[in-house]
Amino acid sequence: MVKRGSIEEWYLINATMESHAFHIHQMTFVQERSWAGIPVTTDTVFVPVGTLLANKRDPNYPLVKPRITKILLDFRNVPRGTFVFHCHMLFHEDRGMMAIVRVV
Ligand SMILES: [Cu+2]
Q: How far is the CA of 96 from the centre of ligand 1 (A)?
């Protein structure tokens, strides 16, 4: 649940070796690391994979250092209601990478 009028920082944490494409309906957001230092407003952002690290305990199972993508969401001009955000890769979306945000 989000209060209308607020501005939120969201952290998209990818602790896998599979990339994602975060997408939200009804609004746009600004990515922390924007293109060439210029803030870009978008409704979808690429969420890169983590980094593989050697696992000294068991070399067969490498560790993953998560990659964090920070976005700023401006709820000042978003209508009250419920809408979805999800991974834009249909394979992921169809298997559960979808949730709702309620703006009150
Ligand atoms: Cu995905």
A: 9
Q: Is 2 a domain residue?
A: no
- Residue 11 domain-assigned (yes or no): yes
Tens-of-pLDDT digits for all 104 residues of the chain? 999 999 999 999 999 999 999 999 999 998 876 656 777 888 999 999 999 999 999 999 999 999 999 999 999 999 999 999 999 999 999 999 999 999 99
pTM of the entire structure? 0.87
The CATH number of whichever domain residue 67 belongs to comes to 2.60.40.420
Domain that holds residue 24: 7-103
Residue 5 contacts residue 78 (beta carbons within 8 Å): no
Give the number of domains in the chain: 1
Tell me the CA–centroid distance for residue 97 and ligand 1, in Å. 7
- To which H or E segment does residue 73 belong? strand 67-74
